[in-house]
């Protein structure tokens, strides 16, 4: 499990999300996380390669 800080798409406050990815997984994932400050849904698009998690985009989770 890895923790990453993201900035909320709605209120622009930062909060941490826990991302759990299998050790052999490689690819792209999209998940919805509710902001800890304003409770709005944030869609997080991230990629996993060689065990590294890189967040590509944080967007509107209502779409």
């Amino acid at each position: 499990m890895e923790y990453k800080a993201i900035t909320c798409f709605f209120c622009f406050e930062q909060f941490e999300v826990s991302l759990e990815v299998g050790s052999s997984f490689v690819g792209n994932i999209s998940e919805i996380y509710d902001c800890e400050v304003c409770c709005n849904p944030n869609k997080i698009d991230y990629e996993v390669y060689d065990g590294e998690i890189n967040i590509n985009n944080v967007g509107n989770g209502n779409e």
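The radius of gyration is 12 Å. The mean pLDDT is 95.
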